[in-house]
Design a protein that fits this description.
Immunoglobulin-like; alpha+beta; binds ligand MIG
Length: 797
């Protein structure tokens, strides 16, 4: 009876009488025009998906989009020449004569429209789509691209490429993330994600002044238009579609030291010893290909590295993690007792040539074979290769060369007619050419690594670092910007690269601090790069074989002291940075942000392109031309900001004179920053009080988040979450803490409340008097640990 009733209700909901031409609630709308079939669906009320093909719709399958996303219902009225689709968030108009698509919000504002003229065209097996480009719209995202922060006026290709020593305008480089975020000068935003793994392009007004054009050489017309109230909504929509990065192990947020050319076990241990002797806080040392036997993945050169397990535990005793490179190219070494080859070959798990035989191509180990990562069986097998390393206590792995890079070929990769096997739920089981699989190959490599290491150590958070990836790859790996160059231009470029990566799903992104390739960085350049890197999500010093040392201790004590100061500040800020990581795992919002993500109207200000924010509270304003001593303009998004270092209030616009030891950092009015006493590693428990730095102002709310930083116990309730907020009333500051959630036991015994720009004396806790001392521009109030809802009242002067 119950079932019958529900069916009757559903049927009633499906038919809404609406005068002439009945409007219906449906979960898709299909139309045909001129041999093209198009379908509109809505994965969520604020997102629409457009698919199209010649004669028939393309396969409905994706490597990027979460498989559990369903279709939602919308209303269609298609009596006239323009079909109108609507739900409670948006309206889509499709011109039946041209297939032009216009998306409007509920206020009637055009979110995104097709360009006048041919909106969708098919040619040579590929396609192109043209969208209108309003004059005040700015474009971001596209993953890791060179060039300016704003993509407007640029044209870009998506084709994962090994580009050693790339320049500030080289395109493409290593990754393909076909997602664009559009923001206009009143803050209206849209997102566009083209889910197509073939070689593709985005021409953002370069060829046509008023249109942006995107398309691919093959594969489906399959794209999503995201709508929302501003850029944050769009970033969250994109995360809804393609997934969020898992919460990182906390040690990944520490300082990381790496080099291609640490040649012996003693040398690697020596790096750890040197970091500790010089009191340079650090969490990670990397080993590049040098540790392997003849560059063969999953081997160890036992002459140079006689006791890898001993090295891992020796570094662990210094509170350091080891990260090991494990490239995908398995040495082609039949009958040599090389297990990765033998076991993979026995099960036929390598990519094939067009004629069906195994493809062999040269990379570091010489002739190599390439795991067919689109097969679950190959991914499982790959994951098992990590058993020995995980058994030693290594949980961090570096997947390089996974574009994939192949030596001695013009294309730098494998033949486009090579064959991969797709055996993925959602896809028809079939062979796919390398032309189709190239851009997603690196992501599938990291998926195999991530899932494999998780299986081997189910309660430890793994860390995977990748060079190549595709949309959605953030679910498996962090990334870095590849082989940059030691130059001021590259330091500047890194900001727009990392910001756009963050907007494209990759909250965990870094660049080679100091520059990988090229001439030795000057002492000043390395110092500045460490200063900026201290405020980037991934903070990793890495450099090429053959260069002079580039660790923070080189170039003398004066430079080392400045560098240490910034690395130390990074460690003090870890409670704040870690809470940003936790926020990212829930929402997809990046850790490093463009100013316009917090202040959409700032998108109109060209000067902000060199600035970035760390979370919602810190704005970093490096000199655009780091080598120039000339003063430069700093424009902040409003009044009331504070200089992070001096605690002094600053104006909304002023000039900065560059100084070697100063990286300008400013704090938003209304910020609450959680900080901790200095530690040398995240493995060390801080001693003393948790610091809560309050900068009284509007929108003053923050969430404290802590857990053990390494396990999955937080998914079983072992975390600590508490809301802190502030408001000023009649010159009196009120700070409120909520009840604490979760069962994680804090390391601190008390809380030090530091109220910046405040000199009043008396403070009370739930009515009882507290000790309060003036320190510089701040008032410091000593509090006990407060797990229960509490009100602190700090009097004005
Ligand atoms: O062809 O493993 O981008 O970070 O040090 C060079 C050696 C291979 C490229 C990576 C770089 C790494 C290097 N690799």
């Amino acid at each position: 009876m119950k079932t019958l009733l529900m069916t009757a209700c559903a049927a009633a909901a499906l038919l809404l009488a609406s005068g002439a031409g009945a409007a219906q609630m449906v979960d898709h709308y299909t139309l045909d025009h001129d041999g093209v079939r198009m379908e509109i669906t809505a994965p969520r009320g604020d997102i629409i998906r457009v698919r199209a093909g010649k004669g028939a719709l393309p396969e409905d399958a994706s490597w990027a989009v979460n498989a559990d996303i369903k279709r939602t219902l919308f209303e269609v009225s298609d009596a006239g020449p323009v079909a109108e689709i609507s739900n409670n968030k948006l309206t889509v108009r499709v011109d039946k004569a041209t297939l032009a698509v216009t998306v409007l919000d509920k206020a009637g504002h055009v979110v995104l429209a097709d360009a006048p003229g041919q909106a969708l065209g098919f040619e040579n097996g590929g396609f192109r789509v043209r969208k209108a480009m309003p004059e005040d719209e700015h474009y971001f995202g596209l993953g890791d691209k060179t060039g300016p922060l704003d993509r407007r006026g640029g044209a870009f290709t998506n084709w994962n490429s090994d580009t050693f020593g790339y320049g500030v305008a080289t395109d493409p480089i290593y990754k393909s993330i076909p997602f664009v975020l559009g923001v206009d000068e009143s803050g209206h935003s849209f997102g566009l994600f083209m889910d197509n793994t073939w070689r593709s392009f985005f021409d953002m007004g370069k060829s046509e002044r008023n249109a942006f054009v995107f398309g691919a050489e093959g594969g489906p017309v399959d794209y999503y238009i995201m709508t929302g109230d501003g850029p944050k909504d769009i970033v969250e929509d994109y995360a809804y579609l393609t997934g969020k990065a898992p919460l990182t192990p906390e040690w990944v947020l520490g300082f990381q030291q790496s080099h291609w050319g640490y040649l012996t076990q003693g040398e690697v241990k020596g790096i750890g010893d040197h970091l500790r002797a010089d009191k340079l806080p650090a969490d990670v040392v990397y080993m590049d290909i040098d540790y392997q036997d003849r560059d063969r993945p999953f081997t160890v050169d036992s002459k140079a590295f006689p006791d890898l397990a001993g090295l891992v535990s020796g570094l662990k005793a210094e509170n350091l993690h080891l990260v090991l490179i494990t490239d995908l190219h398995v040495a082609y070494a039949p009958n040599q007792g090389y297990a990765p080859y033998d076991s993979g070959a026995a099960q036929n798990l390598f990519v094939r040539k067009a004629d069906g035989s195994t493809f062999v191509g040269p990379v570091w180990p010489g002739d190599a074979v390439f795991p067919d990562f689109s097969r679950p069986k190959a991914r499982d097998w790959w994951g098992q290769q990590y058993k020995t390393f995980v058994g030693m206590g290594v949980y961090g792995f570096w997947n390089d060369m996974n574009e994939p890079s192949v030596f001695n070929t013009r294309s730098k990769t494998m033949p486009l007619d090579n064959l991969h096997r797709i055996e993925e739920p959602g896809f028809a089981p079939r062979d796919a050419t390398h032309a189709e699989m190239h851009n997603v190959f690196g992501m599938l490599n990291t998926r195999a690594t991530y899932e494999g290491v998780r299986k081997l150590a189910p309660d430890t958070r793994p860390f995977v670092l990748t060079r190549a990836t595709y949309a959605g790859g953030q679910r498996y790996a962090a990334t870095w910007t590849g082989d940059n160059t030691s130059s001021w231009a590259h330091l500047r470029l890194s900001t727009s690269q990392l910001v756009n990566l963050g907007l494209s799903g990759f909250a965990y992104a870094g660049d080679d601090i100091g520059g990988f390739a090229g001439e030795q960085p000057s002492a000043d350049l390395l110092t500045k790069w460490i200063e900026v890197g201290a405020f980037n999500p991934i903070f990793r010093d890495h450099y090429q074989k053959g260069k002079e040392p580039q660790e923070p201790w080189v170039s003398g004590p004066e430079h080392e002291n400045i560098r240490r100061h910034y690395i130390e500040e990074r460690y003090r800020l870890l409670p704040y940075i870690y809470s940003l990581a936790e926020e990212n795992s829930r929402t997809g919002l990046p850790i490093m942000r463009p100013v316009f993500l917090e202040y959409p109207k700032a998108v109109a200000n060209d000067g902000v392109a060199d600035q970035f924010m760390l979370g919602p509270n810190l704005l970093i304003a490096p000199a655009p031309n780091g080598e120039s001593p000339a003063a430069y303009d700093v424009t902040l998004p409003g009044e009331g900001w504070t200089d992070y270092w001096t605690g002094e209030k600053v104006k909304a616009a002023f000039r900065e004179t560059p100084k070697l030891e100063r990286l300008p950092v400013f704090v938003r009015p209304g910020a609450i920053l959680a900080k901790q006493p200095l530690v040398q590693s995240t493995m060390e428990t801080p001693k003393g009080a948790l610091e809560l730095h309050v900068y009284p102002g509007p929108d003053c709310t923050a969430q404290l988040y802590f857990d053990d930083g390494t396990s999955f116990a937080y998914t079983r309730g072992v975390f600590l979450r508490q809301t802190v907020s502030c408001r000023v009333e009649n010159g009196t500051l009120h700070v409120a803490l909520s009840d604490r959630e979760g069962s994680y036991k804090p390391w601190w015994t008390g809380i030090s409340l530091v109220v910046h720009g405040w000199s009043g004396k008396g403070a009370t806790l739930n009515g009882g008097a507290l000790k309060a001392d003036v320190a510089g521009n701040a008032l410091v109030v000593g509090l006990p640990d407060l797990a229960k809802a509490s009100d602190i009242v700090v009097a004005g002067q």
